[in-house]
Amino acid sequence: MVSEVKAWRPAVGGVAEAFHARFTDHAYPMHVHDTWTLLLIDEGAVRYDLDRHEHGALRSLVTLLPPQVPHDGQSATPHGFRKRVLYLDGTLLDDALIGRAVDGPEIADAALRGQVHLLHESLVRPGDELEAESRVELVADRLRRHLRRRDPVPEPVRDRRLAHAMRDLLDRRIGPGVSLREAAAELHAHPAHLVRAFGSEFGIAPHQYLVTRRVDRARRLLLAGRPVHAVAAATGFYDQSHLTRHFKRVVGTTPARYAGSNGRPTVL
């Protein structure tokens, strides 16, 4: 019996599919994927066989199953399980790492689990693709470091030239925006290095910088008398609710109340 299923293909490079589900008595037969399976368990636990060895996916772990390696799966408790899955393609993790993942599919890294959780949160919000792209590149970089048995926490990255070039690009593309992979190709940098260099230089992620620039532009248009829905379209937000969510987080009030104050003090 299935109590919840949600599947979609995010508009984010490297992510072939996102899948959220809660199962009570479903058991997966032995099967393979042509993508990497990045799994979080939010309730319960899953017992599975991978390459003829028994494993367990637990809430405290990040589970990474490699492509083309048979595995199955079923609840380890009578109450079922709830999971979130991302299917990642070979542009993020290459086949040379498959053997390492077979040897150790369970990753005990609380920081990585938190990063994957935030990635899922960004994927369900239309209009936040740059944030999702940034998060998926950092998650993939941390996974690669785990599979190569290196310290998963990288040293601070300083690349002032690259960071300032990225800021200039974002300033030119406030309205239409720019994808992380497009920016990386234009600036001849790896996407994860680009995100880290920007954050190290300016103390803010590229997607956060772009949002604050859009909010600043929205403030001016609102005070000029433009309606909220038109301001959302003019400043690169997905829709009015997307503008409202970010505007309230940055400014402390909604766009409508901000515009309606008309120079008078208002209770926020």
From TrEMBL:
Gene3D superfamilies given in the database record: Homeodomain-like
UniProt keyword terms in alphabetical order: Activator, DNA-binding, Transcription, Transcription regulation
One Pfam family named in its UniProt record: HTH_18
Domain HTH araC/xylS-type: 160-261
Molecular function as annotated in GO: DNA-binding transcription factor activity; sequence-specific DNA binding
Tree of life domain: Bacteria
Protein's name in the database: AraC-type DNA-binding protein
